[in-house]
């Protein structure tokens, strides 16, 4: 799910930790020059001096206290009114309507621009209609606002009727996933703001950690993967301009891959977006004069020159280079495939394309690796390998990537995301074979030649890659040295078993593999990510000891999180959705080693991590609606589900292993109770066993937390889930909703007699109790809730702080991280005031009636289905929440049916599941 809003509010904040606030703050009027100028701003992408606005005049990015633009206005300066030439033509007006007036912004990309522990200075211009104060708050927050680090100690600026410029400084102890800037004015005061800027304070000395082991010294050793293997990273022009990045690279790595600078579009001077070639010249190929594009080697040479200088200064660590890449469907200018190098003209024939292909590969090899050329003599000793062909196998079909691949891109685009103009010209794999043939012809024999691809552990795609490798290897005149496994993995996929199978499959054909672009997307827990890397690394070490398998090393796709390609959206080779801060690499934004680094260098320094496991209610013991979890060790993978009822907690485990004889029994643990199942009671499968057991539990109830474990016992060694993580089992409810139709009028229709009350039991600081009935028909979902509450209060203007019922609905039960169009949060107060969250969560899609009772209130409501056609057997995401206000009008707590995190307003993945039945 994806929403346009960055987030909706500060609901569910559970942790506050201190930050260093302003070291100094001052203000001056517009005629003084005491406040220093900030020439540029780190957050300029989100603050254009309030110059930008949408078609309705609403400011981009900025919102008021309710996270809407309603109480913000963009005002044009009158003649000679602007206090500074930097203020532009517009400023912002924050309108007060009794409460404190606010201007605020929050985004993950702001977090990407800032670093923990770094001192920043800020300036802004402000004034007010009436005397009052203005305070800047800076908050670092987790993506779901489950943890917030707030600045402390910011002084208040005294505002008056004249523009003044204010300055100060702050240090963020923890940037987290997103950063919020919030200006809060005195209650009742309307104020004006402009030209908010932030930059890093001058004079700060930063350095890498020089006293920790070098990554390469551990990985490229006899105790690591093997002596003299590659332990590398990637570098781009931007990273090469950062001296700290280069210092880090020089200390920890023995090889680099140029991220973009040796790709076709860069070599063509990035003349792709304007769809014109960079100019043409003449060349001679095989005695024939041909017309070719002018190549631009300057960007690659600039980085290579820096590496040469690093090698000259540090004879003990000679950094090698991987060339990337000669032939790729993406980042290949479309005009390169057309007559006269003009995109609007017809495609050339494959014979003509073969000439262009051979010329380009020859030119690249001669320039960078041929000792007979001046540049080849200069750079040739750097290169240890080159990716000849990249990503030529389709994810969808598992065969060759064609010109008709699924995707939003088109062959008429300047460059491509999924479709291949190489295939459009050749209609076969001939260009792949020829690329390896020409690379073999012109590259020195010492240069390793690779095929490189992503999603390379997917069984279907793996088989397609194997067929490609076989075709290249068997062709006349070709040479292939190994398979480049890109390694753009996430926290779940691929499994270690899938990874191992892929390594074996590729080595069986080409004898050698290397991880060439390793990173980990979707990381929410750095320690958990470290264990994921640890498992991968241990498997590489073990595999490299086997005959017939050669692990050439590891290359990470970058070193520092803030520079990772995963910080922005991408449709090539994986990528993130752009809405969540990514933490995929070994070092953080301050160039400090993360747990992921210690996974390779010293795993003993890793802290244990905790895995949340949902134990779902199931009266009949069925596990069909339960969630699946897994762990893996020593070549044995265990996936399992858990449910509960009054008989206890039932486990259903699927064990996949290549050593069936080595497993004697499984032991299932829930708190202090355990049950062991011997092999005689296993059900054997093709690749392992299934095992089911029920562990007695005293009075299991929703809201309880059970410590779970599964132990795999064998004569040649045992291991347990708790060796890898602590499994906290959350006892959760499950609901079946019968079919029925009622009239929404606040009265209990006879149809409600078809269903039982569902208790709400997840209590977070509330002093209420509640129960509800639910029904459904083809048009609506119906809810009748009865709430026992001694104090009813709706005085607060923020709806979520009023006594109310909230109904969360995820119609397609996708349980995604952010709201999709089908997701809704309806709020109905005890006196039937309504508020909404969600694209289709509107008053027109619901009806409600509320009444005050002798001990609280009752609410009856219907909610239209907007995205599904409901039927018996349909599962939906659902939660019910009661907001409990105290006498002061503030929400003191909540009572839920399912969720204990308080994040249902932004993360449908926290909702429970309900099954529609007859």
Identify the notable features of this structure and list them briefly.
single chain, 918 residues, alpha+beta, Jelly Rolls, TIM Barrel, Immunoglobulin-like, 11-stranded mixed sheet, 47 strands, 16% helix, globular, disordered N terminus
What sort of overall outline do the alpha carbons produce when their principal axes are compared? Answer: globular
Number of helical elements: 14
| CATH superfamily caption of the largest domain | Glycosidases
State the CATH topology of the largest domain.
TIM Barrel
Q: Which regions have little confidence, pLDDT < 50, spanning 5+ residues?
A: 1-34, 570-578
Q: Report the average pLDDT across residues.
A: 89
- Kindly name the structural category: alpha+beta
Count of the separate structural domains: 4
Strands, total number = 47
Largest sheet: 11 strands, mixed
- By CATH, the architecture of the largest domain is named Alpha-Beta Barrel
Identify the CATH class of the largest domain.
Alpha Beta
> What is the rounded distance between the termini?
30 Å
Overall helicity: 10-25%
DSSP strand (E) fraction? 25-35%
Q: What is the gyration radius calculated from CA atoms? A: 31 Å
């Amino acid at each position: 799910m994806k929403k346009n809003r960055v987030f909706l509010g500060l609901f569910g904040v559970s942790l506050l930790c201190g930050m260093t606030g302003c070291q100094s703050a001052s203000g001056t009027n517009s005629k003084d020059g005491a406040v220093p100028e900030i020439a540029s701003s780190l957050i300029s992408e989100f603050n254009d001096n309030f110059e930008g606005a949408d078609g309705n005049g609403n400011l981009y990015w900025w919102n008021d206290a309710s996270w809407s633009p309603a109480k913000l206005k963009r005002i044009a300066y009158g003649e000679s009114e602007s206090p500074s030439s930097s203020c532009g033509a517009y400023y912002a007006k924050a309108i007060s309507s009794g409460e404190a007036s606010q201007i605020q912004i929050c985004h993950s990309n702001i977090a990407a621009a800032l670093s923990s522990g770094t001192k920043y200075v800020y300036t802004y211009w402000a004034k007010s209609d009436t005397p009052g104060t203005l305070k800047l708050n800076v908050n670092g927050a987790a993506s779901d606002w489950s943890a917030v680090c707030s600045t402390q100690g910011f002084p208040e600026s005294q505002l008056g009727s004249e523009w003044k410029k204010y300055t100060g400084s702050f240090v963020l102890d923890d940037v987290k996933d997103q950063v919020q800037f919030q200006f809060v004015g005195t209650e009742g005061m309307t104020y004006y703001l402009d030209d908010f800027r932030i930059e890093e304070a001058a004079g700060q000395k930063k350095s890498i950690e020089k006293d920790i082991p070098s990554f390469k010294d551990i990985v490229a050793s006899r105790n690591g993967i093997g002596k003299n293997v590659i332990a590398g990273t990637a570098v781009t022009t931007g990273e090469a301009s950062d001296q700290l990045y280069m210092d880090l690279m020089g200390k920890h790595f023995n090889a680099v891959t140029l991220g973009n600078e040796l790709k076709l579009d860069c070599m063509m001077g990035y003349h792709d977006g304007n769809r014109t070639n960079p100019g043409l010249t003449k060349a001679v190929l095989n005695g024939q004069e041909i017309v070719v594009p002018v190549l631009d080697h300057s960007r690659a040479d600039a980085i290579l020159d820096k590496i040469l200088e690093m090698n000259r200064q540090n004879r003990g660590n000679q950094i090698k280079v991987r060339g990337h890449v000669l032939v790729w469907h993406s980042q290949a200018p479309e005009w390169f495939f057309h007559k006269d190098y003009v995109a609007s003209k017809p495609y050339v024939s494959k014979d003509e394309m073969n000439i262009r292909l051979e010329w380009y590969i020859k030119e690249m090899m001669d320039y960078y690796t041929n000792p007979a050329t001046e540049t080849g003599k200069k750079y040739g000793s750097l290169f240890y390998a080159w990716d000849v062909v990249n990503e030529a196998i389709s994810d969808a079909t598992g065969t060759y990537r064609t010109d008709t691949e699924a995707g939003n891109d088109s062959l008429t685009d300047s460059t491509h995301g999924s479709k291949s103009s190489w295939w459009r010209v050749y209609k076969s794999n001939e260009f792949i074979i020829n690329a390896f043939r020409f690379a073999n012809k012109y590259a020195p024999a010492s240069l390793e030649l690779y095929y490189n691809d992503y999603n390379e552990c997917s069984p279907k795609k793996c088989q397609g890659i194997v067929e490609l490798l076989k075709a290249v290897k068997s062709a006349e005149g070709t040479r292939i040295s190994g398979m480049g496994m890109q390694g753009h993995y996430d926290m779940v996929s691929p499994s270690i078993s899938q990874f191992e199978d892929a390594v074996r499959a590729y080595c069986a054909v080409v004898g050698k593999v290397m991880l060439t672009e390793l990173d980990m997307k979707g990381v929410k827990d750095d320690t958990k990510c470290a264990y994921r890397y640890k498992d991968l690394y241990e498997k590489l070490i073990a595999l490299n000891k086997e005959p017939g398998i050669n692990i050439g090393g590891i290359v990470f796709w970058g070193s520092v999180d803030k520079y990772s390609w995963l910080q922005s959206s991408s449709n090539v080779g994986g990528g993130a959705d752009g809405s969540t801060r990514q933490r995929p690499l070994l070092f953080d934004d301050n160039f400090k080693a993360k747990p992921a680094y210690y996974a390779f260098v010293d795993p003993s320094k890793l802290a244990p991590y905790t895995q949340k496991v949902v134990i779902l209610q199931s009266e009949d013991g069925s596990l069909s609606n339960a969630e699946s979890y897994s762990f893996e060790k020593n070549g044995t993978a265990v996936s399992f589900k858990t449910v509960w009822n009054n008989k206890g907690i039932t486990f259903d485990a699927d064990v996949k292993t290549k050593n069936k004889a080595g497993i004697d029994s499984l032991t299932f643990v829930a708190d202090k109770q355990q049950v062991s199942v011997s092999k005689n009671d296993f059900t054997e499968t093709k690749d392992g066993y299934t095992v089911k057991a029920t562990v007695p539990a005293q009075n299991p109830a929703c809201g309880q937390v059970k410590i779970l474990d599964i132990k795999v016992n064998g004569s040649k060694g045992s291991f347990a889930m708790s060796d890898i993580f602590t499994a906290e089992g959350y006892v959760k409810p499950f609901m079946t909703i019968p079919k029925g139709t009622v009239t929404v009028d606040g009265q209990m229709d006879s149809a409600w007699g078809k269903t039982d009350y569902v208790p709400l039991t997840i209590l977070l600081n509330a002093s209420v109790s509640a129960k509800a009935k639910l029904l459904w028909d083809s048009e609506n979902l119906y809810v009748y809730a009865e709430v026992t509450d001694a104090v009813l209060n709706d005085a607060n203007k923020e709806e979520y702080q009023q006594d109310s019922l909230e109904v969360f609905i995820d119609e397609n039960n996708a349980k995604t991280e952010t709201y999709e169009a089908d997701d809704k949060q309806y709020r109905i107060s005890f006196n039937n005031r309504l508020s909404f969250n969600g694209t289709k969560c509107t008053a027109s899609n619901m009806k409600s009636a509320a009444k005050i009772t002798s001990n609280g209130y009752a609410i009856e409501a219907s909610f239209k289905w907007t995205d599904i056609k409901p039927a018996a057997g349909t599962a939906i995401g659902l939660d019910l929440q009661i907001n409990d206000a105290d006498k002061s009008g503030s929400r003191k707590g909540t009572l839920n049916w399912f969720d204990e995190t308080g994040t249902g307003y932004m993360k449908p993945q926290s909702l429970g599941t309900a099954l529609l039945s007859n």
